[in-house]
Each structure stands twice: as structure tokens, then as C-alpha cells.
Amino acid sequence: MENQIPENLITQARLQRKVAGYSLYFDLTCTAYGELVDLQADILRWPEGARRLTFGDDWETIERELRRSEPYFRLGVALAGQGVLTIGEWETLTANIQTLRELPEFRDRPGTGWIADPWLHWVWHDTPEGTSALDLEMVADLFLNKHRSRVLREMPDQPAAFMEPVLLNLLEWIPEYHFREVYVALGRLNTENGQQVLLRVLEDRSLEEQHEGAICGLCLHPSPQVREGLRVYYRRHPKMPDNSKVHIFSTLASDRDPALKKWALREFPHEYIRLSEVLLDILRSAEMPETEIAGILLKKIRGRAPIKVIYSALQHFVAMEATDLLPPVEDLKKLIEWAAAQDEGYTLRPSIAALLQRRPAPEMGDFLQGMTRQENEKVVAAGLYYLGMLGAPAHIKAVFAKVHDERYSVASQALTACKQLLEKYHDPELLAFFVAGINNEDKMEKLKFLQLVTPQMWSDGTDDFLNILIGQLNHSSPSVRIAALEALRRFGLDPASPCLSDIREDRHPSVRKRVNQLFFPEN
After folding, report:
1. Please, which residues bridge with residue 38 across strands?
2. Which helix (DSSP H) or strand (DSSP E) does residue 428 occupy?
3. Tens of pLDDT along 58-113?
4. Among 21, 20, 34, 127, which residue's Cα sits nearest to residue 79?
5. For the chain, is the Cβ count within 10 Å smaller at the N or the C terminus?
């Protein structure tokens, strides 16, 4: 149709239907006679010099743009006939179109005139033989874009011979956000040909990444052959996005077909491990021996899978009861070094530390202390983290030496590690350091230490330190007074203590509020 129309008589426009609450947008390619050349959402061939109308353009702008080329009016007739446009909107549209039809360029050439039978209804229900594939595509595209629920509701009532060609054509260019609707529609036809088409696409077509997720809907397709096709598709497209893999395997793991279920349960952990809760459910459902599960997880760790994959594997190891199945210490050492250089490697630290606590190794202390002597900031911070969790008294000096490091992440991690080591070993030098920090005249330093202190830092009674904290209640800064109150609460100060009577009447409202929250919640 299009190659018979002079280029200067083809125009495109995006029409906007403005109605309270929602809008409809149509991309049109049309002629002066109202013949529809193309109607799509994304793929348009714009003639040179034509300006593409935006969603914000009003009817005056549209009219001005259409005056530069030619109007399209047949779509308006169709939309009105289908009840898509209200009478008032139809009058506005026709008034603009009628004005444009008076242009000499239109008036001087024979036109096709108005179509009595609404165009959409005509093509959808009474398509004559010989209707072009382009027309069929346009109908399906319009319905998929604007009437998705109607497509899914009415599709099974349409003859398969009519709908399959339409939907197959759509597969070649349908916008990504409607890709799944095409598959769902083909699946609901539930004809032998429809199933074979799905299998062919699954097996032979390399889809763009943004379309891959839509394929997951086929996990629930009524045809076992189609569901089986997912297996073939997966093997031929190893770069399938991770979300699709998780969906396919987790859905087929509960499939009613025993062969598919067995395949999914066995294949899933070998190919992709992401969310720990999904992983645990799948592996438990498979009733695999713990030794086999451990081997699969260790392979993921050694293979340096993505951080989230290793995270899930470590989480599963942490949940295991058998100590002899945990990763060897040498593997954990290598993992620590590798993770330290990764942007999100810090997320693995708690799990690695938990595993090392269950599998103590004397040589780990020297290994971690060696990390603190390296130049890389991330590596040093990682070493300090593990020393805080796993270090011995012999490592305290190495950790303490980094407290004043000029690199913030190192100094901050060293201070936290000092707190953890002091709670375990009650080193007098570290204790004096924290007391000095609380008495520091610099407000920010004082706050930093007040927020860190805990009763576990003292091996004997804490009465002396309580007096230090109580003394901070007289500080001029409200934030310091609040931090001191929070520390006193951690130390278990009795609400009846006389030191609280004055501060309950503190001049600053935030301090008074915090006193009540911490010690007198009933107020």
C-alpha cells in the first residue's frame, strides 16, 4: 500500500486523547485520503522535515502540524464507532479534520470518503479474504496497546487461522512491553500449530535481553511440549538474564510433569544460585544429600560467581549443621582477598566471619594481620574487620595502630575493631584510649566514642565509668547529652538515679524527649 503513495502525501502524527484520569496516544502514518499506512507504538518512518509530536502537544499544535502535510481521519471514525472517543471528543476531532479536508491539496484529489462501518470492528470481526498482513498487524497492535484485557478475553473466540498469522507477524516487531501478551495469546489458542510455533521460537530465535523475561510465562503453559521447550531454549541461550533463570527453574521445580520437575531440581543449583530463600527451598525439595549440596556451593565460590551468588552459597553453608562440610580455610582465605577488591565484597564479610568462627584456624590471625600492612585501602579495611571479629590479644597493637590512619574507612573500621577486641580481652591500653576519647574536648570525637562504649568493655565493675558518663550530662551540647544518656541506658542505669532528675528538666526539648523515651517510656 505504502509504495503506491507519493512521499509528500504521507504524514505521521502522535494524537493524544485527553480525558480526565487517563490518556490515549496513537502514532499514525497516513495519507491525505485517510488511508492507513502504518500505526505503531515505537517503529515509525518519519519523512524528512516532519516534526514528531510529543505527548504534551494540544489539538492546535496537532492541527498546525497536520496542515504542513495531510490529515488522517479514518482512525477517528473507527475510534468513535468503537466507543473509544466520547461524542464531545469526536466532535473536536472531526472539526479539526474537516477543516483540514478543505485544504486545496486534499480537495483537488479524489478521496476515499468516510467509512460507515467502524474500521476496527470491520477488520476484527469481518476481515475479507485478501486483507494485507499489514492491516492485520495494525489491528493486533492497536488492541494490544490499548485493549490488552480485551485481547486476552476475546482471543480464544477468534478462529486460529485468523489470529495465528497476526500474532506471528507481531513477534517480529512488537514493543517489548507487549511481548508477553503475544505469547499468552498464542498459548491460549492452544492449537497444535500454536504450540509448534512457540517451540520454534523458543528453540531457534535469539531474543533481545529485555524480551527474555516474557518467556517465563510459558512455564505455566498447558502444553507439556511447550514447557519442555524451555529446557531446550535455556541450553541454547546461556546468557539468559538471571531473573529469567530463577523464574524458569523455580517454577518448573513444582511442575506436574515428573521428568521436568526432576530436571529443574537437579539443574537449578548447577546453573544459577541467587536468592538464598529460593535456593534453600529448591535444594530441600530436591532432597539432595548435604555432601552434594556442599560440593555445588563450593564450586560456585571457587568459580568466583557474581557476589550475590556467592552470598547465597555462604548463607547456605552458615545454615549447615555439619562442620566437616564447610569450605576449607584456604578457600576462605582466597575468598577474603578476592572480595576485598570487589565493590560489593563487603556484603560477604559477616558470612565469612561466621564460617571462620565455626572452623578456627591459628594461621588466620597472621594472614589477616598481613592484610592490614598492604597499601590497598579496601584490603586493609577488610583485614581490620576480620581481626575485630576473630583477632587474638596479639593482634590488638596492629589494629590500634590504624585508628589514626588518614583514610577514613580504615580509621573507622579500626576503631570498631578496637571496640570488639576490648569487649573480648579487656586490654587496659584500649580501655584508657576509649576513656580518653570520651573526655576529649572535641565534640565530634566525644560523640564518636560515646556511641561505641558498652558495658562489655569492662572486666570489673563499671561504677567508675558510670561517673564519667554522668559527667557528660552537663556538657553544653544537646547531642552530647543525648549520646551520654544512650550510653547510660546501655550500662543499665537505674531510672531512679538522682542524676536524671535535673536532666528531665533540661532546657532543650530534644534532650527532655530522649530522657523519657529511654528511662520513662510510660510518660
Report:
1. 29
2. helix 428-438
3. 445 544 544 443 333 334 333 433 333 344 444 444 444 444 444 444 344 333 22
4. 34
5. C
Instruction: Name which of 254, 199, 274, 258 is nearest 231 in CA terms.
Output: 199
Size (the chain), residues: 523
Rounded to the nearest angstrom, the gap between the alpha carbon of residue 450 and the centroid of all alpha carbons in its chain is 38
Element (H, E) at 28: strand 22-31
Whether residue 85 lies inside any domain: the answer is: yes
Secondary structure class of 359 (helix, strand, coil): coil
Q: Which long-range contacts (CB under 8 A, 24 or more apart) does 417-421 make?
A: 417/384, 417/385, 417/387, 417/388, 417/391, 418/388, 419/388, 419/452, 419/453, 419/454, 419/457, 420/388, 420/389, 421/387, 421/388, 421/391, 421/393, 421/395, 421/396
Spatial CA neighbour of 437 closest among 472, 402, 386? 472
Question: Which residues lie closer than 8 Å to 454 by C-beta, 6 or more apart?
Answer: 419, 423, 490
Query: Which of 122, 145, 171 marks a domain boundary?
Result: 122
Residue 69 lies in a domain: yes
Q: pLDDT category, 286, cuts 50, 70, 90?
A: low
The letter for the amino acid at 294 is A
CA torsion, ordered 343, 345, 347, 349, to nearest 10 deg: -150
- CA 172 to each of CA 7, 49, 179, 201, 214: distance values in angstroms, whole numbers, following the listed order: 25, 28, 10, 11, 15
Whole-angstrom Cα Rg for the chain? 35
Q: Which of 228, 299, 220 is nearest to 259 (CA)?
A: 228
Number of folded domains in the chain?
A: 2
What are the strands of the beta sheet with 22-31, ordered from one edge?
10-19, 22-31, 36-40
Best CA proximity match to 456, nearest among 489, 424, 413:
424
Of residues 358, 346, 364, 360, the one with CA closest to residue 320: 358
Q: How far apart are CA 69 and CA 100, in angstroms?
A: 10
Domain with 459 in it: 449-523
Global pTM value: 0.49
The number of helix segments (H) and strand segments (E) in the chain equals 29, 3
279 part of a folded domain: no
Flag whether 461 is in a domain. Answer: yes
Of 70, 91, 122, which closes a domain?
A: 122
Helix or strand holding residue 17 (H, E) = strand 10-19
Determine whether 478 is exposed, middle or buried from the number of CB atoms within 10 Å of its CB (0-12, 13-18, 19+). middle
42-55: pLDDT as tens digits: 222 233 333 443 33
15-29 per-residue burial string, b: 16 or more CB within 10 A, e: under 16: bbbeeeeeeeebbbb
Tally of CB atoms within 10 A around 290: 12
Q: 163 to each of 166, 219, 444, how far by Cα in Å? A: 5, 22, 71
Name the nearest CA neighbour of 503 among 462, 483, 131.
483
* Position 189 pLDDT exceeds 50: yes
